[in-house]
Amino acid sequence: SRFLIGERYMAMPLIGLLIALCTICPRSPKLAWGLILMAPWAWSSNQRIADWTSDLDLARAAHTSQPTPYTAAWYGHELANEGHVEAALPLFDQATTTDRPTCDFSGEWIRASLAVNGPDAAVETARTVWKRRCAAAPGVRGMWALSLLKSGDIDGADALLMPRPERCDTSLALPVVTVLLKHNEADLAERCATQSGQSLAQLRPAALR
CB neighbours of 85 closer than 8 A, spacing ≥ 6? Predict the structure, then answer.
């Protein structure tokens, strides 16, 4: 995970310290004191082992011990990845409520809102994202446009996608292709689909639904 923090390097000094203890073990009368001093460190390390069993466990532990917008965004992201989409919604909200929001997963927040509460709620979430200055985050424009389309606001989605993006990523592909096909611009729709790594044949059924 790109979120794993520097604590994972704790094993290195621990290994070095164990090697040093093994070196002096046969002849040092101070070994007992060394082991006593190491006991709290060993206990602390053992307590953290369970937190490193998965990205979700680590994110949960980080947010529980020190909640910040960053840990809220990370925890929400991991919950959504594991299928706990509804539980992720308040965390995505928390991630963007401060003066220094963590906007990275605002697109995921709109997607989660769409999946759990439907297109109208997703459009409101997108407007909240915009008010909190997170509209430039990855996936926001595409998910906002898709939510507008699913709510029946084709003109709103069309306006949101103007000017047309120079490149279509996976979040933009479906809404852009949908709007282009409604304008009978099949060649541009095919180019957008190709840029996103998909084919127009794959996207057309969902676009025309």
Answer: 79, 112, 115, 116
Rounded CA gap, 171 and 207, in Å? 13
d(CA 179, CA 190): 12
- One-letter amino acid at 181 equals L
Whole-number Å distance between alpha carbons of 39 and 35: 6
In the DSSP assignment, the letter for residue 51 is G
Token pair, residue 99, equals 């003066």
Single-letter amino acid, residue 136: A
CA pseudo-torsion sign 198, 201, 204, 205: negative
Q: What is the mean pLDDT of the chain?
A: 85
Residue range 130-178, pLDDT digits in tens: 999 999 999 999 999 999 999 999 999 999 999 999 999 999 999 999 9
3-class DSSP assignment, residue 147: helix
Token duo for residue 53: 């069993």
pLDDT in tens, 68-104: 999 999 999 999 999 999 999 999 999 999 999 999 9
